[in-house]
Specification:
- The protein contains 21 helices and two strands.
- With 504 residues, the chain is mainly α.
- The chain has a two-stranded antiparallel sheet.
- A hairpin with a 2-residue loop joins strand 1 and strand 2 (73-77).
- Helix 12 runs antiparallel to helix 17 and helix 13 packs across helix 21.
- It is globular.
C-alpha cells in the first residue's frame, strides 16, 4: 500500500511551518518593511496538501480502516480521521485566504500563518494516531499552536488574561491525560490501539474507570465540557476572528475525537460511557444556552453557543453507545461537520463586520462588536449579512439548512432506540434547540432593521478576499442541508469506527 500520500499529508505542514515563519521574517528584514510572503507560503502549503488528502481519503473509503507503518509509528486512517482532516484543511485554507487583509502588515504576521499551518497539521496527525502516546503528542502540539494564536495580541491585558487562562487549563488537562495513559500502560504494558483493545478486556474495572475519568476531564478541557469551559469565551473573543473560527469550528471537535479514541480503548463499560456523554451533553446545552442568552457581544455569544452544539454531538454519541444505535453516532458526526462549517462561517462573518466597522486595518481581535452594532448591516453589507444569517439560522436548526438535518438525524436515532431514558433526553434536547432561538433571532432581526447603527454608517467596504470564504461556507451550509447524502459515506464510516470500540 502506497504510504506517500498520508506521510505527505502530515510532513508537509510540519516542514513548512518553520519555513513560513523564517521566510516571512527574513523577507521583512531584507526589505525593511512588512511583506506578506508568509501568507503566500501558507496558502501554497495548504493548497499543496489537498492532493495527498484526496488520495488518502479515497484509499480510506475503499479500505477502511487503512494503516500505514513508518518505522515504529503506525498511522491509522478511518472515517473519523478523514472527517477531521478534511474539516481542518478546509477551514485552514479559507482562514488563510480570509486573513489576507486583516493580518497584512501585522508585526506577528509570520507567526500567525506559521501557527495556522501547524495547527492544521497537528489535527491531521491527531486523527491518524494509532497509539496513546502519539495521540497525546499531537494533542499537545495542537494545544501549543492554538495557545500562540489566542495570544496573538498579547500586548493587550484582556488578551493576555485570556491566553494565560487557556494555557493553564489546557496544561492541566494534558497532565491528566498523561496520568490516564500511565495508568493504562501500567496495567497492560501496551500503548497501541489494537493491542490495548484486547488487553483492557481483562483489565481491572476500577482502574479502567479511573483512566476513563482522567481522559474525560483532560480531553474535556479542550472539548469545553461544562464546567471545564471557562477558557472558551475569553479565548474565542480575544483571538483574531479567523482563529476564533478555527477554535470553535475544528479545534474543540479535535478534542472530542481524541476523547473518543481514548474511551474506545476502555470499551468494556460502554453503557457507562454512554450515560456519561449524555449527561455532559445535557449540561452543556443548558449552560451554553443560558450564558449565550445574557451576551451582548457577538463573539462571546457565538463562543457560548459552541457549548450547546458540543452538547448535541455528545447526546448523539451517548445514544449510540448506550443503545448501540450507530445512527446516533452518524448524526453526531454529521453535526460535527456542520458545526464546523456554520460556526466557521459565523465567526468569519462577524469578523468581516468587525473589520468593516473599525478604523484600523487590522482585525482587533477583541469582543467589541455588539448586537446593537449590527443594526442595518444588511443595507450596506448584504453579502456579509446574508452569510451571517445563514450561519445563525443553521445553528438554530431551521430547515432546510445543514444544522437542521444533523439535529434531525440525532432525534430520529433517539426515537428509534425506543428507550424511556433516551426519549426524555431527546425531548430535552429538542426544547433546548427551540430555546436557542431566543438569542439567535435578535442577531438576524438587528441586521435587517431599517435604521443603520453608527458603526454601519462609518464602515468601510469589504475586500474580495473576505467575501469569497463567506460565499463558499454559506454554500456548504445550504447544500448539505438540501443534500445531506453528499457526506453520508464519511459520517457512516466515522460512526463505524467509534462503534467498533464503544458499541454496546
Amino acid at each position: 500500500m502506497d504510504i506517500f500520500a498520508p506521510i505527505s499529508l502530515i510532513l508537509i505542514p510540519l516542514i513548512a511551518t518553520p519555513i513560513i515563519y523564517l521566510g516571512g521574517r527574513l523577507a521583512n528584514l531584507q526589505s525593511g518593511r512588512q511583506l506578506s510572503l508568509s501568507r503566500w507560503l501558507a496558502l501554497f502549503t495548504l493548497l499543496l496538501m489537498w492532493l495527498p488528502f484526496i488520495q488518502t481519503a479515497r484509499t480510506s473509503m475503499i479500505v477502511c480502516p487503512c494503516e500505514f507503518t513508518v518505522g515504529l509509528v503506525t498511522l491509522h486512517f478511518d472515517g473519523l480521521s478523514v472527517l477531521l482532516a478534511g474539516l481542518a484543511l478546509l477551514l485552514g485554507t479559507l482562514v488563510v485566504f480570509y486573513s489576507s487583509e486583516s493580518m497584512a502588515g501585522e508585526p506577528g504576521e509570520s507567526k500567525y500563518y506559521a501557527m495556522l499551518v501547524a495547527i492544521v497539521g497537528m489535527m491531521i496527525g491527531l486523527g491518524g494516531a494509532y497509539d496513546l502516546f502519539n495521540l497525546w503528542l499531537w494533542f499537545e502540539g495542537m494545544a501549543i499552536s492554538s495557545y500562540l494564536l489566542v495570544a496573538f495580541y498579547r500586548e493587550r491585558p484582556s488578551t493576555l488574561e485570556a491566553s494565560v487562562k487557556y494555557l493553564v487549563q489546557s496544561s492541566l488537562g494534558s497532565v491528566l491525560v498523561l496520568l490516564g495513559i500511565a495508568l493504562i500502560f501500567g496495567i497492560t504494558g501496551q500503548l497501541r490501539f489494537d493491542a490495548l483493545a484486547q488487553a483492557t478486556a481483562a483489565a481491572n474495572l476500577p482502574v479502567l474507570l479511573a483512566a476513563g475519568g482522567l481522559f474525560t476531564i483532560g480531553f474535556g478541557v479542550k472539548v469545553a465540557l461544562v464546567p471545564l469551559h471557562t477558557w472558551l469565551p475569553d479565548a474565542h473573543s480575544q483571538a483574531p476572528s479567523g482563529i476564533s473560527a478555527m477554535l470553535s469550528g475544528v479545534v474543540i471537535e479535535a478534542g472530542l475525537v481524541a476523547l473518543l479514541r481514548a474511551l474506545s480503548l476502555l470499551g468494556t463499560v460502554p453503557t457507562t460511557w454512554g450515560e456519561l456523554l449524555m449527561a455532559f451533553g445535557l449540561l452543556n446545552m443548558v449552560v451554553g444556552n443560558l450564558l449565550a442568552l445574557r451576551q451582548q457581544q457577538v463573539k462571546r455569544l457565538l463562543a457560548y453557543s459552541s457549548l450547546t452544539h458540543i452538547g448535541y454531538m455528545l447526546v448523539g454519541l451517548g445514544i449510540a453507545i448506550y443503545a448501540n444505535q450507530a445512527a446516533g453516532a452518524q448524526g453526531s458526526f454529521f453535526h460535527l461537520l456542520n458545526h464546523g462549517l456554520m460556526k466557521g462561517l459565523a465567526f468569519l462573518a462577524a469578523g468581516a463586520l468587525l473589520y468593516a466597522f473599525t478604523s484600523q486595518q487590522k482585525d482587533s481581535g477583541d469582543h467589541g462588536l455588539t448586537i446593537a452594532d449590527l443594526a442595518g448591516a444588511s443595507r450596506r453589507y448584504p453579502l456579509a449579512a446574508l452569510a451571517f444569517t445563514l450561519a445563525i439560522l443553521g445553528l438554530a436548526g431551521l430547515p432546510p439548512l445543514a444544522g437542521f438535518m444533523s439535529k434531525w438525524q440525532i432525534f430520529v436515532a433517539g426515537v428509534a432506540a425506543d428507550d424511556g431514558l433516551i426519549t426524555a433526553v431527546i425531548l430535552f434536547t429538542a426544547l433546548n434547540s427551540v430555546f436557542s432561538l431566543a438569542y439567535y433571532a435578535p442577531l438576524v432581526n438587528m441586521m435587517y432593521r431599517q435604521t443603520p447603527s453608527l458603526a454601519v454608517v462609518g464602515g468601510r467596504p469589504l475586500p474580495a478576499t473576505v467575501n469569497l470564504p463567506l460565499i463558499l461556507l454559506a454554500a456548504g451550509v445550504v447544500v448539505l442541508g438540501i443534500w445531506p447524502n453528499l457526506v453520508s459515506n464519511i459520517t457512516e464510516l466515522a460512526a463505524t469506527a467509534v462503534m467498533a470500540g464503544l458499541g454496546g
